[in-house]
Amino acid sequence: MGRYVLRRLLQFIPVFLGTTFLIYTMVWAVPGDPFAGKCGERPCPDAFVTVMTERFNLNDPLLVQYVKYLGQLLQGNFGETFSGVPVGQLIVDAYPTTVKLAVVALVIEAVIGISAGLLTGLRGRGFLDNLVLVSTLFLIAIPTFVTGYVLQILLGLRWGIIDPTVSSEAAWGELLVPGFVLGSLSMAYVARLTRTSIAENLRADYVRTAVAKGLPPRRVVGIHLLRNSVIPVITFMGTDLGALMGGAIVTEGVFNIRGIGGLLFRSILTKEGVTVTGVVTLLVIVYLLMNLLVDVLYAVLDPRIRYD
Amino acid sequence: MTEPTDAISSTTSRGAYAAATTEGRQRGLWSDAWRNLRRQPTFLISAGLILLVLVMAAFPQLFTSVDPTYGDLSRQRQLPSVDAWFGYDNQGADIYARVIYGTRASVVVGVLATAGTVLIGSTLGILAGYYGGWLDALMSRVADVFFGLPFVLGAIVILTTLNAPGSTPGPVRIVAQVVLSIALLSWPVAMRIMRAAVISAKQNDYVKAARALGASSRRIIFRHLLPNCLAPVLVYATIALGAFIGVEATLSFLGLGLRSPVVSWGVMISDARDYVRIAPHLLLFPAGFLTMTVLAFVMLGDAVREALDPKLR
């Protein structure tokens, strides 16, 4: 196992390089003058352009620019924006909020999704099954921003149960509703994946054996059935955390949460390439670590899967 | 299961060939599935709904004679009435006509993006899962690179890169770009699902038996692995189809996807977002059609999965 983890960590290197290079190329290859609109309602003075071109190595070929950027990054320097704000500071301000939001969303989707999937998978066709299927369909069909606005209006403005917007501290309790909105789509996926998986494994020989041995139903379901059935669900949720953090743009916009989603959206539109690359790099690292965690969990959950 | 072939299986040449050469042999998987499907009410209902949606997408003028882009501000946000079944939107345009005409863009984006995603993802997934080794390592890393990019962000970056700010690309170009960005960013999901299914199916006895009998890799992939591994990808694809139509709406919402004068459900939903409190019908009807379409596709996917997966019978 140790050797496997080490090998996976080594495999991170090409993926890390590939993703950062991809995003660097896409951001800096955006057609148009990088200094357009940077100096208000007039063209930038030559002195400014010269300094900035020098600072961001804009005269070098793209590959050289990227290598220089990477060299700085590896020393822990995320660079600074055109106006001189260190990107590292922007990230430190925004990151914890988004991580919190994504974790809340993940927990909500796991608890509700797996329970709903388990219940319907065990019961088979019937009223409850149809109810869950239809409600997951609604969650899938309605875009996040609609769910967000509707909950914000109903719970926040009409009934006054929650604050319509999240304060800048972003306490855990405040993030419950935004987390639900963010995780609602994935919750539907989790419920359906669990249901499919449970229904399939319910007829497996090992379940029949476990029942025949006279094990109590709780143990058959909890140890034998669930452990085997959550493997695809765990894959999904592991890869989902990164997606949740990146997809938080809309939820953060609706609930006015100061996270990296909004930071990124503004940076892309104002062509702050350094900020975009830095934040996406962090998101990619989170994603890679979650993938590793998922693969290691496979072996723990299912001893038939071995890495050696 | 052992009766001679009938008209249905002769539609698939391989099944017909197999049945003709060895009489009494089991029918092909897909023709067998088709026989099962025809008796399922959920399949019939969803197929009917999908057919309706497709007809709406292809021939909107069959359903309404009102111009969906004509607006009259004097009837702004009027409630549903006999004249306009679904009422009027913020520009005073007929919502019923807009919903009907909006079907095309939404369905085209959803279907093309799903087809692209599944095709790329499952091809690469089956190759990676079956051959393993360096091919698997390489593909998985490439998939990681694309999947590591957060979905909405990746789409935003791609769409802003493809369209310089201030440009006004035509509707066809925008649709192509939206489809491209969705497929490019979501194929790794389909690939990972397919790869996981193939890896677990590969260790089954029937694959080992086939290999021991001297079956070629090509035969094992197409006859044994593909039918046994397709179910999870199909389930994903049907759900993804709905999600992609929602993604199209999200991109419109952020001002990057389709936009007026193109009529689509996504554009309508994002137009309605500021008026939900005072005029919920602006949101209700496009969202309802969206939900109905997704419902149809997911029901279809479920029925197909059950028919295809021999383990569930």
TrEMBL record, chain A:
One of its GO terms (biological process) is transmembrane transport. Residues 95-298 form the ABC transmembrane type-1 domain. Keywords: Cell membrane, Membrane, Transmembrane, Transmembrane helix, Transport. The keyword Transmembrane applies. It comes from the Bacteria. It is a multi-pass membrane protein. Belongs to the binding-protein-dependent transport system permease family. This is ABC transporter permease. It comes from Longimycelium tulufanense. The lineage of its organism: Bacteria, Bacillati, Actinomycetota, Actinomycetes, Pseudonocardiales.
UniProtKB/TrEMBL annotation, chain B:
Its main location: membrane. Signal peptide: none annotated. It is a multi-pass membrane protein. GO terms for biological process: transmembrane transport. It is found in: Cell membrane. Residues 103-301 form the ABC transmembrane type-1 domain. CDD domains: TM_PBP2. This is Peptide ABC transporter permease. It comes from Longimycelium tulufanense.
